[in-house]
Amino acid sequence: MKKVLFLCTGNSCRSQMAEAIVNAHLGKHWEAVSAGTKPAGYTHPKAIAALAEIGIQHQGRSKLADEFRATDFDLVVTVCDSAAEDCPLWLGKGRKVHHSFFDPAKTDDMDDFRRVRDEIAEVIPEILAAHAG
Fold this sequence. Notes:
This protein has a single domain (2-130), classed as Response regulator (Rossmann fold), CATH 3.40.50.2300. Helix content is 36%, strand content 17%. The protein contains 4 helices and 4 strands; from the N terminus they run βαβαβαβα. It has helices at 14-25, 45-53, 81-86, 110-130, and strands spanning 2-8, 30-36, 75-78, 95-98. Helix 1 (14-25) links the parallel strand 1 (2-8) and strand 2.
C-alpha cells in the first residue's frame, strides 16, 4: 500500500478533507495522513460537516508536519501555496507535488467548503493515479 501526506498550513480544512476522502475512497491502494506547517489545533467543523454530507465520518486531528519526518511516504502533496512556500523541500522520503485549493475557512461559507471538498474529490485521485507507478 502506498502512503501519501497532505500538507497544508493549518491542517484544519483542505488537508483534512483530502486525508478523509482518500482513506474513504482509495483506501485499498493509498493510506493518507495530513499535517500542517503551523497547525491550527483543530479540524474545522464545517470541513467535518462537508465530509459527512458525502457519507465520510472524519474526526481529524490537527498535526505538525514534523510528526511525520521519519515516515516513508510515496508522495507528499501540498494543498496550499503557503505550505508549498514554507516547505519547498520535504526533508523526508517521498516525492513532493503541489496543487493549491482555495481556503474555505477564509469565508466560513458552507458552500465554499462543499466546493473545495468536491474539487479535492476530483483532483486528488488524478494526482495519485499519475504518481502510482
